[in-house]
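I hope you will forgive my troubling you with a question about protein structure. I am sending you one protein, given as its amino acid sequence and as whole-number tokens for its backbone shapes. Thank you for your consideration; the sequence and its tokens are set out here:
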Amino acid sequence: MASHRLNFTKAALLKAPAAKKGARDYYYDEREAGLMMAVTAAGSKSFYLYKRIEGRPERLLLGKFPDMTVEQARKAAAKAKGGIAAGANPQKEKKAIRDEMTFGALFGEYLDKYSKVHKKSWKYDEREVNKYLSHWFRRKISSIDRAEVERLHAKIGKDNGIYQANRLLERIRSIFNKGIEWGWKGVNPATGIKKFREQSRDRFLQPDELPRFFEALANEPNEAARDFFMISLLTGARKSNTLAMMWKDISFEAATWRIEETKNADPLTVHLPQQAVELLIERKLKSDSPYVFAGSGKSGHLADPKKAWTRILAEAGIENLRIHDLRRTLGSYQAATGANGYIIGKSLGHRSQQSTAIYARLNLDPVRESVDKATELMFSKSR
């Protein structure tokens, strides 16, 4: 190991030869006290600040030469010395970052200590975070900043809709808040980010669109997707629940489908109109899967059938219709046949502070009658 003192210039440092095999050579700047450059046997050159911190000599890596210029190295050394003089310890800070938990570890704690304990809908947290935030799992939580969260929020809003983006932002904010509550000293990167303004959507299949929709649906080559769309329309159930529909939850005798885990965490019994029962019986005869709409993916059930949906709309000549609008379509035709808001809310699994008590007293009979009337009206439009 050899050490040298010189006035750092680009030309002088470029001339510094590689160290002997197994050794390092050190060069100390004559202008900026403590600034040094280490040269390896391979010729790699790095700037360090050599400084006593809390009584111990430390070498703080500043950057690689020539990627970092001499002037940049001097400024970085001066800034680091200022921080040390003010009581900072860069080595401890680096160790704290190394020891800091990853986002994946924080989310694991969030699930076990909070979500599974306090939220009946914890599986939605697990599913949505795994779907949209798995690329953060190996990241230190302090490396995720507000700008990155803002970019993700904007991207999800563009690709998946503002509602999905806002719910994900709420989950990110909640996860980091719990981390702070449990002792993390950082700043929540979701704080201060405004949610997209959500406007209620009123799109549903119009009477003149129903015949074209049913015809295009009948011509759809993907049988699982075709039947999925029909069941979605006939039951008004949420897409995620319908995709994961299981045979064990269906009673053909009672013509009902029991959904144990819903978005609002309340179990829901869905009435199955005659058309739905007939379709499901036909699928059951050909099924060897626990899922009504079996799929080849990891979940075991059908994934989001976007391509089939696009084909159906193109053939039917229907624009600006989303899969979720099938749910609204059932409610709209229930209203058209005279159902009141409480009956519609009961059949669709809505929950509000004003109506929860009334929902609890309703039995399935008026819901069954309302859904049957609505589906009959829809099918009458296609005759």
User: Anything to note?
Assistant: The domain at 2-98 is CATH 3.30.160.390 (Double Stranded RNA Binding Domain). The first helix runs from residue 10 to 15.
